[in-house]
Design goal:
7-stranded antiparallel beta sheet; 9 helices; 6-stranded antiparallel beta sheet; Pdz3 Domain; 351 residues; alpha+beta; elongated; 28% helix; single chain; Thrombin, subunit H; 36% strand
């Protein structure tokens, strides 16, 4: 009898709890039927939420500047990068490492396509290339007179179509600073151990040494005209050089001496392993360190969205986007340096 009473009370308690839960569930179920159509109406694609018409309308001056004065750099129909129009007669800056290994390039400025494109000059320190297209009456960017302060609104190229540029807004997230080469600058070779010369054992496929055609078995005999025979001497010749700079080597191959020029690369960017942050960062730029000075901002476009102008809310160019660094930061060369690079490259292509 006692067991029956206990069981009866337990059943009553469970029944009460079930009814209580249902009393909460049915109102919530009814509410979901009311709310779900509204949620469905807000289910826009990610690209439209970030740079759709409503976003573009809030940045009219910036969008107009990007529309007129940025370029889309393509190989066939594949976008490689954006570019900054710096003269009415077809001179355009872009990110060098994204276009140098490409085949035939074409460029879109505003809604016009230019097929005759050549790489006129390159600044390896800044990873900037100067392109030339046959054009007249293009609208170059108008440079801002000062640098944007930390927290200022900035705008970059977002999605693009043949005729229309869209914008991606963000803020300046850190003061301008140098970004040293990750791990230091390096040739990208492994030397044989225990030898009496600087014989190469391995060449990294991602290195400037590989680009220059160095091979296992080559012997490095001089750097910038100075003879070297020990690893310490080679390190001394390279230690103060920056990633992106070129160094002249003399090597011995099969008994013959050859002169080669090797582009130094950031040691960290030649590594095959990725950090956890890199694994979470998506498609970041292969060259993202070793810049003398950059503005950091939080606009996170794709890897192929670098190379174009970074503008303020008035549409004035405050910099040139040069790298998507990771999931939290992107880098732009400040406007002052962009103008200096432009003048230097324009002069070098005439020499």
């Amino acid at each position: 009898m006692k067991r029956t009473t206990k069981d009866t009370k337990g059943s009553e308690t469970r029944a009460f709890r079930e009814v209580s839960c249902l009393s909460w569930f049915f109102p919530l179920l009814a509410l979901s039927w009311i709310v779900s159509p509204a949620l469905a109406d807000q289910n826009l694609e990610t690209a439209r939420r970030r740079n759709g018409d409503a976003v573009v309308a809030a940045f009219t001056d910036a969008q107009a500047s990007i529309q007129r004065s940025s370029a889309v750099i393509q190989e066939g129909r594949r976008r490689l990068a954006y570019g900054v129009v710096v003269s009415p007669d077809g001179w355009i800056l872009t990110k060098a490492s994204e276009v140098q290994s490409a085949g035939t390039l074409n460029v879109i400025v505003d809604a016009e396509t230019f097929a005759d494109v050549r790489v006129a000059a390159v600044d390896p320190i800044w990873d900037v290339a100067l392109l030339k297209v046959t054009a007249e009456n293009l609208t170059p960017v108008a440079f801002a007179s000062g640098e944007p302060p930390q927290g200022a609104w900035v705008v970059a190229n977002g999605a693009t179509s043949r005729a229309k540029r869209r914008v991606l807004p963000g803020i300046v997230s850190a003061n301008a600073r140098e970004i040293p080469a990750s791990g230091g600058a390096a040739l990208g070779v492994v030397l044989k151990e225990g030898g009496k010369s600087l014989a190469i054992a391995e060449v990294s496929e991602k290195s400037g040494a590989h680009e220059a055609g160095l091979q296992p078995g080559d012997v490095i005999v001089a750097v910038e005209g100075k003879k070297v025979s020990k690893p310490a001497e080679l390190r001394d010749q390279l230690k103060d050089r920056k990633a992106g700079s070129a160094v002249k080597l003399k090597i011995r191959r099969d008994g013959k001496e050859l002169a080669v020029e090797v582009r130094l690369m950031a040691r960290g960017e030649m590594a095959d392993e990725q950090s956890r942050n890199d694994q979470m960062s998506g498609d970041f730029s292969p060259r993202r360190t070793g810049f003398p000075r950059v503005i950091q901002h939080d606009i996170l476009g794709a890897r192929d969205s670098v190379g174009g102008p970074l503008v303020d809310l008035d549409g004035k160019c405050v910099g040139m986007n040069i790298a998507r660094a990771d999931r939290a930061q992107s880098f732009a060369i400040p406007a002052k340096e962009v103008q200096e690079i432009t003048a230097r490259l324009m002069k070098s292509k005439n020499e």
